[in-house]
Design a protein that fits this description.
single chain, alpha/beta, Glycerol-3-phosphate (1)-acyltransferase, seven-stranded mixed β-sheet, two-stranded antiparallel sheet, 9 strands
Amino acid sequence: MMISAQSEKRISQNEEYDHQSLEKIRWKLRWILKYIGFGILAKYEGVEGLENFPAEGPAIVMINHIALIDPAVVLGSLPRNVVPMAKIEVYRYPVFGYFAKLWRVISVRRQEFDRQAIRQALRVLEAGECILMAPEGTRSPALQPGKEGVAYLGVKSGAPIIPVAVTGSKGFPTFNPLRWLRTGAFVKVGRAFRFRTGDERLGRETLRLMTDEAMFVLAELLPEDHRGVYSDLSKATTHTIKFV
């Protein structure tokens, strides 16, 4: 199914990124999300580790992805506005699609190296804002291998990576009262890090190592049954990352 340019709402190469106007819109949407959405879409348990989130400057928020609502839960939990990167199909979702258009979510074509999405993400970071990525590229109850895009953007932008773990979101959104009796969504913000960049060429193997080391940092924030392919923390290394 083709998606129209209007529905996609992608930033063209020559279009100016209007940071101030978008900030005003996003703060209004955040209010709706936090004070109305959380009461309807999901049971929300709270957030910890906000002292790890930078007060200013660009940052890449890296999350695990269990349920559809995860990006919205993270958006409503953090003290600053964050611009998610999401599969292009999100614009077709009821309610969520309209929200994505207004927020100016960065749409990504997952079947290819989406250069336009990368350019958009870099422009957002250059404006001093934060982007949100789910490196797995798909939803799963336990971590799957991360894709190298998080390492590529981290190196290209020099922005710190903020690992953010989400738990308890499975089964939401729902109107099933039984689900609301169980534990709800909880967000945990980890310590920021940057990728080390030396003189070596950033080939596929280096980007792969960077990505896996970043994913192990995220895995440490999650319960053991959520760590998936990164369950064995003894394999975690920090050759390409430094904490800040």
